[in-house]
# Entry
Amino acid sequence: MDPILSVRDLVVEVDTGSAVHKVIDGVSLDLYPGKTLGVVGESGCGKSMTALATMGLLPDRFRVAGGSIQLAGEEMTTVKPSRLRQLRGNAISMIFQEPMTSLNPLLTVERQIAEVVELHQQKSRAEARDIALEMLRAVQIPSPEARLAAYPHELSGGMRQRVMIAIALACRPKVIIADEPTTALDVTVQAQIFRLLRDLQMDTETAIMLITHDLGAVAEMADEVAVFYAGRSIETGPVAQILDTPAHPYTRGLMSCTPRLKLGAQAREPDAGALGEIPGMVPPLGRFPKACRFAPRCALADARCTHDAPPKVALNDAHAALCWHAKEEAFA
Amino acid sequence: MTPAPATTAAPLTGTAADTGSQRDTPHGNLVDVQDLKVHFPLANGNVVRAVDGVTFKVARGASFGIVGESGSGKSTTAQALTRLVDPVSGSMSVGRHSLSGLTGEPLRLARKDIQMVFQDPFSSLNPRLRAGKAVREPLDLMGIGTREEREARVDELFRAVGLHPDAKRLFPHQFSGGQRQRLCIARAMVTEPQLVVCDEPVSALDVAIQAQILNLLKRLRQEKQLTYIFISHDLAVVQNICTHVAVMYLGQFVETGPVEEIFANAKHPYTWSLMAAALSPDDRDRGRERFTVTGEPPSPINPPKGCRFAGRCPFAQDRCRAEKPELRKMGKDHKVACHFAETLTPPLPELALAG
Amino acid sequence: MTQTAMEPTSAMSKPAKAASIPDEAAITPAHPATEFVRAFARNQSAILGLVLLALVFALTFLGPVIYPLNPYEMVDMPFAAPGGEYAPLGTDYIGRDILAGIISGGKATLAVGASSALISVVIGILIGSFAGYFGGFIDAALMKVTEFFQILPALLLAMLLVSIFGAKLLTIIIAIGIVSWPQTARLARAEFMRIRKLDYVNAARTAGAKNSYLIFAVILPAALPPLIVAAGLAVGSAILFEAGLSFLGLGDPNVMSWGLIIGQNRNYLLDAWWTVTLPGIAIFITVLGISLVGDGINDALNPKLRRR
# Structure
């Protein structure tokens, strides 16, 4: 199957006024219909910038400096602004972290959903209203007829995120980019939203790019995973392989510092002690190490790691890591 | 209140009958909260019952976790304990300080023993204060030690939290989020408090930094024999750092007990729902039917009359909606507020096996 | 102003964080003060305002050295036109030199502006900070007082005060100060209400801070930037106010000021335009300069406007 969204060697630069830095440096990703790609990493690793570049929504002073982004064969990095507006919200749409600030506080729920439909699909107001109602049903908002007239501030956080999802899905997009869609929500509501996204994806064959810092969310939602570190995708592969047999020391570090809930008999076992730690912190923009960017924090780093850029090591057809030690790690 | 030896009996303001054992002995309870209520009046005459009758004790050296969703009142409980908000009724004592009636200068001096770490390390440091001054400020404000002693203490705490004392001259915006939280922890420890209230101290941090801060908090508690009250929405974090846990829903505790007991043998459907919703990177069994509850917590302005969880609880019966369940003893130190705690079977396979 | 530290834009999930201890990262933003000076220097109209103010100050403080003429002395015929032999900017209704009057009147005008603005800002900050910090009953009471002063017509109240206590410079300064503080008080109150809820204020409270420390050492420094701007603008409006009082004949007749020149010559506006227009231009340039600089400070302190 061909990917619906294909990012190749993407480079995004920021001009800080005094210098130009590469925020994203050669990232490649593939999104397949009906599948979910989990993009995981810490703040400042470039995962949100990848999403914004794909949507053509890079903020001021940021620009795509290289590589390609193809949505269903159409090159997004050179597309005309008018065509980009046609695609956004229609073929590709985005769900943001904070549903309160991403919704227009002055419009009713009906208008927010119907506006997108009227804009992209030339529907009449009545037809758009029907679609809005249908979407509210699809995202399982109770008493949807009554909610059509509600304003965002009258809804709870979970309801707002459902409305965001309804807007994102209204035009049946091929790709949805969900940037930390549940981070602002409670865990019980997060579980509801994830289940909803999965059910909707099964019906519509939508491809989802799920951007998250939470490996638990990756395990729950993703089919494929890309782990980002300091502007690079340092490990990619199927979810089970990434989480069960991580090959990059950074991925291993992330796994070891995530606290696990231990229930039942396990909970009575003596405390395993301290969590695993990755020493130090993500290097700031403009201070990325020259060779392997993780080397200063890596227990395995040797002379090679600090002098030569790490190769992309394929562990099998699907699983690859950007690390000199990937093979030994994977089979350790 | 004049300084007195730590072993002096705490002034008891509680009305509860069973307060006889709560003397402030070295191995007794440091924190004693009885029927705490914090209500916020709204402009339209309604009242938000943020904390609505909470009772608990925390032993010296324990780490007491309060876990719940947004709007459960867990952060308000923390703010009441540090007297950032004023309770409408109930009593709180920490060590020899009876906090509930305390005002003015005695309250200010009592703060030496009760310090707080806030959630957002970006907003909880004054942007105009250099790091060294920020950590030293509590000593300055409470007039503790000479100038040299204060500086030496600040240096010692910088090292204890893993920062170089040279960083004292920097401003907060020159630190990363994790480093800022280390500063906040140093600042909270500088007066040698007995109780540190941590209000979601790792929620704003990335997972790698979160692990560093959790390990730091754990180590400091052991080294300094501190008592924590630890507010979090994350069960795994609470299990990692706490010795006791209370699950809070709509201003009230629904289940409390030692961490091993609660996580092995939870009895309340709300606790189950939190456990079932927690995501683990080790979980490969995605297709399985999870136990989920519907809806979201009702408004704390008009909480339901009976059990506050009844509206979302799949096991709810008529009695739940009519009659409010009290916290009942279910075993040693394990308390549950559910009418059917004895008869319900946990819908989580791990718990069912352990039960 | 912490936002300035959070380069480069809010659209990034969390921007690259500052470096570790020993040496700072390339992207570590400049200190807020440096950033402020840079932003101010980029603003052309603010620089123009600064130049205008510099001219006014040069005229007032260097003028007497270069042009040491007694402004109270008759030097020519009354209403001598500008460009005359004895008075380059003409004379007034009793033959006094207008240029000497403007040079000598600058001091009093600027003094009235600065002193009454200071009085109004101090009263405004005290009342506004207490109202905003304590809230509740104290807030309600103080705001009632503020509203009382706001609904009285300011000019009438000032005229009343000056009429009762006499047209002396000090009385005029105090009168202007007393009628113009409510705006500052409202601004200070709003800032205090916003800032007192911030985490670091709570953190200072748990660290054992007294109310006085929280108000003056923690919240006030954070609230100052907009108040400084307001104080600058208050200087401009106090100068206008003094001119207005003088125009109505309530200026101090013993102290030369721009308003006084205008007030004494106002009947002859049609016959001798320069007697009124020239000091009027001096007032205009001063107030314009103050207001341009004030706007410049405001924009430079606002990180959202800074990038334009």
In short: Residues 1-26 of chain B have pLDDT under 50 and may be disordered. Residues 252-280+291-354 of chain B form one domain. The longest helix of chain B spans residues 207-224. Chain B has eleven helices and twelve strands.
